[in-house]
Amino acid sequence: MSDEQKHILEKQLWSVANVLRGKMNADEYKNYILGFIFYKYLSEKLELYVDEKLLTSEKYNFSEIEENTDDGKADLDHIKNACIGELGFFLKPTELFSYLVKKGKGEIKDQNTFILEDLKNILNDIEKTSAGTASEDDFKGLFGNMDLTSSKLGSRENEKNEVVIEVLGLLRGIDFKLEDAKSDLLGDAYEYLIGEFAAGAGKKGGEFYTPAQVSRLLAQIVSMDKKRIKSAYDATCGSGSLLLRLGDFTDVANYYGQELNPTTYNLARMNMILHGVRFDRFSILQGDTLKEDMHPDLKAEAIVANPPFSAQWKGESDPALAHDDRFSQYGRLAPRKKADYAFVTHMLYHLADNGTMAIVLPHGALFRSGAEGQIRKYIIEKQNYLDTVIGLPSNLFFGTAIPATVLVFKKCRREDDNILFIDASKEFEKVGNKNKLTDENIQKIFDTYKSRKEIERYSHLANIKEIKKNDYNLNIARYIDAFEKEEKVDVKRVAKILTQISKLEQETSLKISKYCNELDLPKPEGGNIYFLKKYQKGIIQKIFLQEIRFRDKDGSDFPKWRGEELGDVVKNYGGTSLEKYTSQAGGYKFISIGNYTKEGKYVDDNQRIILNEVTKNKKLNKGDLVMVLNDKTASGDIIGSTILIDEDDKYIYNQRSERLVVRDGISSNFIWFILNSNSFRRKIIKISQGGTQIYVNFPVVKKIKINLPILSEQQKIADFLTSMDKLIELKQQKIF
Hints:
Elements: H1 3-21, H2 26-54, H3 70-86, H4 97-104, H5 116-130, H6 136-139, H7 157-172, H8 185-200, H9 212-223, E1 228-234, H10 241-245, E2 251-259, H11 262-274, E3 282-286, E4 300-305, H12 340-349, E5 351-362, H13 371-383, E6 386-391, E7 404-410, E8 418-423, E9 429-431, E10 434-436, H14 439-451, E11 459-463, H15 464-469, H16 491-518, H17 529-544, E12 562-565, H18 566-569, E13 570-574, E14 583-591, E15 608-609, E16 619-620, E17 625-628, E18 630-631, E19 642-644, E20 651-653, E21 657-662, H19 668-675, H20 678-687, E22 689-690, E23 694-695, H21 698-701, E24 705-708, H22 711-735
Parallel strand pairs: 1-2, 1-4, 2-3, 4-5, 6-8, 14-20
Antiparallel strand pairs: 5-7, 6-7, 8-11, 9-10, 12-24, 13-21, 14-15, 16-20, 17-19, 17-21, 18-23, 22-23
């Protein structure tokens, strides 16, 4: 799926979410949306299976079977048995998603549009048809979190019915392409929604979602050099995303998981089925993993997990745990308020001799002493199971900003006389207010893990003696010196630069003084940058409110400012998705969301793209403006922020931006100040749309009116304000 197709899908899904967003919290309305998507999937999956496998020799389709005739009943009995054996559930033609939407929309003759009771019965019937069969555990209570009687859907039954019809109608318009075996459009949609709900749910988000980039890393590690894995296990499986990610890298025969939270337990089972995992190939069970081990005999070939950081458990307050084989051999139980090592030893108990386990833990698990220190020492010294320690960046996960680590364990290690340390905490991409591992970051971690190479300030092979010398403290800073080498300072060169800065500052101050005299304004004195910025802000306000005006060369007043729509002042060109092209040194600077500041300044992140047939039409020229149309943080910090291009043939822009070319006879610099003014940005915020991501449509932006003086006054204003910018920048250079 292309980036453009994905963006369209995300907009469709978010429009569905918008129906419920004002009625309840994200962690509540996700139950309805994901449940309805799952119902749609089950309906279409069953219909596709029956039409293509069971009715190929018939002249009618499943949806055309008349349920109340003798022939229809006989057909349905035969079809029901086949569906339960193959799919694990059954629906009648009048219980299909497509039929129910048509009924709700009044498209079925002689049927009323009230479908709420029908929907309740259908969801119950899905569970009932699996009762007493091999699929019972996988469908039991699956829709339990969808409370169709909730007053949050509406105060009256008819209101609830209308909301449900609207949501189902919007979902009808999304084609998940189930007939295409290679397409995982549904999986992409599901993952997008879970990620969005996690972001909206705050601290609760981490309970059911591990960021995709982290799950890919863990999946690559535990599946390395394995074409097939007999069993994969996650003791705190959340929505099941970690387990399912393994399927991207190897063939997994059977999936096992346990989850305490009933909502995310349902999500995990839905997620398995949505990703095409047959009901007899997974066993996801609900319960407290540490208290009740529900897969007692399992020895898994691959284990991945992201347990809740430093969760509470019974520990020493429950005497039975001290005699539990999962915990007893370590001499101490994990502390009651920090169950991290309880999860570690539980999973080590379930790790097969030829297996690999990768678990995400808070950074403190590397060095905390007491009971944790003793358990850590036993694992390293007695068992020799710890293979690799990977330090991750902070602020990767929803609900917490603390840095995390990945610990990799193997019971039969090839190189059992050392432990590999990787410090990946400094290499990431900033996306909004979160950090993100890029594909390149993940590949570097994995390549280093696979090769076990030492890279300066990045990776180190520590032998057991070194670990013992550090008293089994695994704090990565003890093994990898991440500090950059101290730069040798050229004093003469620095002194020369300081002189040049002072000279430029004097020249700029003189120019500003001249403009201040012309406008009868007090000159800005001193070096306090905070107050200089306040002064500049005040000047901008007065100029654009036309409280102060420049005069023509002969001292006469300039003409009045005229109002024009932005679309009459600039010509716009939409961007194109360029993320799929490899970034390379020496290429064109690539302008994406991360390059914008809210003040409209360009921040260089060293990302470069080599010009090709697709990108050559996205080149920017000096004087062009580039406006960002999408703000992933939903904070409004950068939405509408506009960069002014200062060089020819150096920049390329992407699809989340709009190129603006100012018409002849108008100053690009002046328009840049207009577009980044508070008044203009406020107008853009008012017309923006979306939830955890907000965006703005440029055809609407084009209609915003701006006031323009004649070119001579534009140039004076732009030169004055640019000089103020330059003065502030020069004073900052003297500080830093």
